[in-house]
Amino acid sequence: KLSLHESSLELSELPSVCSTIPILGHLLGLQRNSARYVNEVLTSTSASLFTIRIPFKTIVLAHPSMDRILSRHVADTGLAQILALVGRRVFGFGDDAVRAIASIDPRPLHRAEFGRPENLQRLTMQSSRFLWDEIARAPRESEVDLGHWMFRMTVSATACAVWGNENPWRMDDEFAESFMTLSESFESLSRPLPWITARKALAARNFLHTRLRAFHAEHRSARVQSVAHGINIMAHSDPDWESNADYYSIELVSALGLLATPSTLAVWLVRHLLAAPRELLDRVVKEALSLPAAADGRRLDISEVRTRCPWLVAAWYETLRLHMTGVPRLARHAFELPLQGSNRGLSLSQGDIILLPMCASNRDPRAWENPSAFTPARFVAPNGRLNTALMSRVRAFGVAGNLCPGREFGFNVAMAVVAGILRTFSIQSLDRPFVRPEVARGFNVGFERLRDDVRVLLVKR
After folding, report:
1. SS3 of 433, please?
2. What's 398's domain CATH number?
3. Rounded to an integer, what distance in angstroms lies between the CA atom of residue 438 and that of residue 250?
4. Which segments are annotated as binding site for heme?
5. What is the pLDDT of residues 333-378, one digit of tens each?
6. Which residues are documented as binding site?
7. Residue 291 lies in a domain
8. For the chain, what is the domain count?
9. Which residues bind heme per the record (predicted)?
């Protein structure tokens, strides 16, 4: 335990967990196993706050017990500011983007676009209409790589809402494929010598940047009215934003957050359902079939998905519980963080990194029975309704008061995609029986990625 003194603790005075390999050990562990490595480190100490050291940086790890204290300091830390730290290397940011990210809090912009009920309803309707049309146009039978097919469909549906119907994810196959490549590998751009160690990701990033700029010029009138333009901080900080390359870099970062997250999680959900006992899949399909078409007849009505489809929603929360990892946050300025069991606070400086591991509470065996198993039944009460109290314990789309404003929109898109696919198609494996999906190795921020894909036959019911 930390000793009690009146003065504040410095970062160097926190307990520090050493790695088995000096200097590089923690970095290698994070690169290989991400959330699982963080869990291993957490179990090695009883401290609520401790540090690990990677080359050139000390990271503070916060135990889930610190959530309540950290939630009182939402304004003191920021996720966007992490981009200012890694943006040059990973996303090719210039000085304008780094300055804008460091000085502008993007959360009000995001809350305005995604948090207002009328905006959420409009965005959900636009994405659902695209999905309805795509599913209706699908052939009676088709062979597809399931993850690839679902990812592209979900990305395109989300882009139609956020970027408008004229968007490169829907209209440019080469662009869509490059975006998938980048979404799977952009963390590799943080490696030394990325032109050698991350060639694929670097080529995809540069290609996407060029195409985004050209596509914007061709469809300017529609693009400047889009939600994506409204949340782009360069559009708010630079009067000459259109000729600023950083505008398109920020746009690409927004796409990775808004499009890749619900798309990957939707794929995880369907893969888990296909590998689960048949009884669970049949229940979810029956629920999906109970959802009506909207009054306009052009989309699926998911407004009552929580009451009509409790098993589908329970499976979504179980997917979040299993596959959300951790969220790094950067101190916006110097401040003092109170410590549990001590009358001393931790003195943090601007730029210090705090890692909030969602996986630690989501996989805590003291809180969850059989925490590694995919068991949606844990979220369904004996009366058949959702156990909302247990659902609220899942740490997803942010922790410690820092919740993603787009989480409801992401949920709506994922529900429309998964329900639409399961009610429309019978999914038959073509290469091997469906088994529990595995996690790709690597450093995953926010959520884990799948290790493989499966070839399936889609047959309309």
Report:
1. coil
2. 1.10.630.10
3. 31
4. 404
5. 888 888 777 777 888 888 888 888 888 788 888 889 999 999 999 9
6. 404
7. yes
8. 1
9. 404
